[in-house]
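Recall the central idea of this unit: under ordinary conditions, the amino acid sequence of a chain determines the structure it adopts. In this exercise we apply that idea directly, starting from the sequence alone.
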Amino acid sequence: MSDDPKADPGSSRRSRFGWTAAGLATLHAVVGLLLFEPTLFPGGDNAGYLILGDSLRTGSGYRDLYLPGSPLHARYPPLLPSLLALLGTLGGTHLAKIAMLACTSLAVWVTAILGRRLVGDGPALFAAALLAINPTLLEYGHYILSEAPFVLLVVLALWASQRDDRQGAVLATVAAVGAFATRTAGLTVLLALPLSWVARKSWRRAAWGGIVAISTLAIWGLYQRWAAPEQPGYLQELVLIDPYTPEAGSVGLTGLALRAAENLWAYASRVIPQTAIGTEGAATPLVAIFGLTLAGLALAGWAMRTRKPLDPPEIFVLLYVGLIAIWPQVWTDRRFLLPLLPMLTLLALGFVASRGDRARRWAPALLACAIALPCLVWVVKRVPARVECVAMYRAGQPCDIPAFASLYEAARWARDSTPPDAIIANRKPRLFYWYSRRQGDLYPFSTDEDIVLGGLERMGADFVVVDQVSGTTGRYLVPAIQARQHRFEPVYQGGSPPTFVFRMLPSSPVAVK
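Accordingly, the structure predicted from this sequence is:
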C-alpha cells in the first residue's frame, strides 16, 4: 500500500476538516480574549456559583454561605461549583473566566464534528465559523455561569450519540448526565437519548439509558427534598405569571398555552436575532424578518430530518423548545436560547445546503455571510472598549456598570465597618456577600409594608441596602422604610448613583398602662 497521501483522499479530507475546525475554535479563543471583561457579570448567579465553589473548597459542604445560617444549597446542580472549587485552589476569578472561554472554544470544535455527521462538511464548518464569532457565545465565554459548560456538554452528548458503537452510547450518556449536573435543563438531552433508542428499537440501550436518566433525576430530587424541603422548585415557579411579582398569581392551562405562543413568537422575532447576531432592544421589522427566516429554515431542517426515526439531536431540539416555550416570559432571553444555537445553526444551514446542486454550493455560504457580517461588526465595535476596560481594571478602576460599582463600594464599606456577623438585606445578596463577606438575603417582594418589615425581622437583618440596581428596591423596600422611618437609621451613602445603607433599629416598646 502506498504511503502517498493522495492514495487516501478521504484521510486527507478528514485531516483538512479537523485542522479547519481546530482553527475556528482557536479563532473563538483569540476573539474571546480580545473581548475579555475582567469584571463580574451583574446578574448575581455567577457570585452564587463562586460562593458554592468556595464552600466546597473550604470543606463547608454544598452550602449557601451568603445566607444567614449557611443552609444547604438545593437549586443549582453541583458540577460547575465543583469545577470552580478545583480552580479556586489554583487561581481566582480570572482563571474561572478562562475556563469558561475554554468551554465555549471546545463547543465550537465539537459543533463542527457533530455537524459533519448531521449536515456534511461545508455546512458544519460554516456553522462552527458562525459560532466562533457569535456575540452571545463570546459574551458567555467570560461569564462565570453555567451556559459555557452546559453548551459544551450538550453538543458533546449529541455528537457522541451519532456514533453506532457502545463507547459512543456510554460517552453520550455520561455527557448528558454531566449536562443535567450543570443545569436542570439538561433533562432535555438526558431524556432525548433513551427516547431515540426506543424510536430505533434499540431496546437494551433504551432500557439502561432510561435507568440512568430516572436514577439521575431521582438522586437530585431526593437531595433537594432532604436539603431544602420548603424551597419552591422550578415547577412551582413555572406556573407563576411573574416570579418577581408573586402577588400576580399563577397561570392556568389556557394561560400556559398563551404564554407558549407568545414566547415562541418572542424567541423567533426578537431573541434569535439577539442571540445570532447581537441585536439589542426591541425587534425592528427587518430584525424580526431575519429572526423568523432563520427560525423557519431551522424548523424546515428539523422537519426534513424527522422523515426517519428521530435521533437525539432532533428530540433534544423538540424537548428544549418546549421547555423554554412554557417558561415565564420574564426569562425569555438569549441566555436560555444559547444551548439551542448550535443545533439551530446546523439545521438552518443543512436545510439550505440540501436544496439542489446549485443551492448546495452557494446558498450556505450566502446565509453564513449574512449572519457573519453583523457579528463581525459587533466584535469590531466592542474590542476597543473591552481593551480599555482591562487597562482600567489593572489600574484599579474596574469598569463596572455605575449602579453596580456603587453597590460594590457599599459592600466594601460593610466589610470594613460592620461586625463580621452582621446580617445585611439587599437586592443582590450573593454579589454583596462576594465583596463584603457579610451574610444577607433578599427583602420580601411585596407592596405590603408590614410583610416587608416582617421578612426583614425574620431574617434577623441588622442593616438594609437601598441600591440603584433594580426597580424592585424602589417598588418594595423603599416604601417600607418610608412607612417605618423610626426603624431605620442612615449610616452610609456613597457612589454615583448613590447607594444607601440603613441600620435597623428595634421597635419601640409599647407603654404599659
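The CA atoms of residues 197 and 203 lie 7 Å apart.
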